[in-house]
Amino acid sequence: MQGAPFSSILDTSIEFSAKGAAIDYITLPWIVRIVDLLCILSISAVSFAALGLVTPAQIMPPGSAIMLGIVVALVFTGLSQLRDGYRIDVLSNLPKQVQSICTNWIASWVFLSFTAFSLKASSDFSRISTYVMIVLSPVLILGARAIVCRWFSQALSDGRVTHDRVSILQIGSGVSIAAEVLADFAIVHSQVLPLTDAGAVDCDLSAFIRETANSKARKVLIQLPAANLSLIDELAEQLRRLPIPSMIVTDEWLTHAFQRPTELHGELTAFELQAPPLTLMQRVQKRLLDLVASSAGMLLLMPLLVMVAIAVKLDSPGPILFRQRRQGFNGRVFEIYKFRSMSVMEDGVDIRQAARADRRVTRVGRFIRSTSLDELPQLFNVMRGDMSLIGPRPHAIAHDTHYDSLISDYSLRRHMKPGVTGWAQIHGHRGETPTTAHMSARVEHDLWYIAHWSIWLDIWIMLRTTKALLANREVY
After folding, report:
1. Which uninterrupted H or E stretch holds 323?
2. pLDDT tens digits for 83-140?
3. What is the largest CA-CA distance in the chain?
4. Residues of the chain with CATH 3.40.50
5. Fewer CB in 10 Å around end: N or C, the chain?
6. pTM over 0.70, yes/no
7. Burial profile 355-393: b = 16 or more Cβ within 10 angstroms, e = fewer
8. Regarding the domain delimited by 6-13+162-260, which CATH topology (the fold level of the hierarchy) does it fall under?
9. CA dist., res. 330 & res. 467, Å (int)
C-alpha cells in the first residue's frame, strides 16, 4: 500500500491556547446532564423552602420533597437520554433544545402523574411545590444550558477543546468528503486505501488493527462509494476486532435511503419511498372534524340553503344543483354539488372558466358566487366522504388534464382529499386562474398545506375563511 503507515493515521498532536485547561469534546453532554439534575434539585429545594415560609401548615415532609426532586430529575434526564436530547447537534441548536426540553418535560410529568395516581401517592406531595417545580424547572434548565453551551462555544473558538478523534479510511481515490465535513468537529486523520484491479482493498488491515491498541482514535469512518458496497463484509471481518466503533459513510442518495423507514415483507426488508401524507390517526382526526363541523353546518344553515335553492329555481330555468365530475383523493372521480349559478352545465373536455362580466352567470348566480353561497351544497360531499372541509380545491377534470402537463407537481394535490376551502383560498388564490403562473401559485400553497397539515391548521383555516370571503370582492 502506498502512503504513510497506518500508525501515522492515529498519531495526533494537539495544540491548546494558554487561556485555560483543555476540555474533552465528549464531556459537554455529561456536563449538561449534571446541570439538568442540579437545576431540578435546586428548584425542588427552593420551592420546598419557600412553601415552608409562606404556608408552614402545608409543608410536605423533607424526605418527600427530596424524593420528589430526585425522581423528577432522574426521569427527565433518563427520558432526554432515550430521546437523544443530549446529542451535540441538539445542544448546539437553541430551537432544538427548546423543543427537546419542553417535550421531555411534559412527557416526564405525564408519566409521573400516572405513576403517582396508580400508587395513590399524590397526597404525599404539596401541590403548590409541585406546580412551582413544573413551571420554573424548564426555564432554569434552558437558561443554565444556554450558559454552559456559550462557555463551551467560547472554549471551542479558543482552541481549548479536545475534539472527537476520528480516523477516516477512504476506499478508492477521490476527494475525502467526510474529512471536509468533520473538519470543524473532529481531529480527522484521513487515509486513502487503493483498490486492486479486481476491486478488492489493496492492503492488509490486520496490521492496522494491531496498531490501534495504543491509538487515540475514538472511532473509524470508512468512506465507501455505493459502487463498492460489496466490500462491506470483507471490511467488517477485518475491523470487527477493533475495540472502537467502525462505521460506513457512503453516497448521499444511499444515505437518504438508509434513513427511510423500513418494513418487513416476509424475509425481505423494504425501504419506504413514498409515505402517505397523513397517518391513520391523523386521517381519523380530520374525518371526525369534517363530520362534526359539516353536520353542525347543515343544521345551522338549512334555512339559508332552502332560501338559496328557491332563489335559483325562480331566477332561471334549469336544475337547482350544478353537478360536475372532479378528481378527489388519489385521482378518484366523484360528482361535486354546487348551487347552479350559470345558464350552462358544462362537464366535458372543453370547460371554460367564468370570467369577469361573463354572460353565462345568472342574476342570482352573480350574488351567490361573490358570497360563495354556491359552495354550500359541498357539505353533502363532505358528509359522503368525497371531500374534506379543508384541502386543495378540486378542479374540473378537463382543467386537471391541462395543468398536469404544464405543472410538474400539480398531481401532488391529489395526495389529500379536496376541500370546500383551503390554505390557497384564504391567501387570495380563488376564482379564475387565467395564466399558468396563477395556477402555480395555488398549487404551491396547496402543497405547503399538505406538508404541514395539523388539526389546528384546519381549524385556523376555517376561522380565516369567513374573513377572506368578506374581504375578497374579486370573485365573479
Report:
1. strand 321-327
2. 888 887 777 777 888 888 888 888 888 888 888 777 666 565 667 777 778 888 888 8
3. 95
4. 6-13+162-260
5. C
6. no
7. eeebeebbebbbbbbbebbbbbbbbebbeeebbbbbbbb
8. Rossmann fold (3.40.50)
9. 31
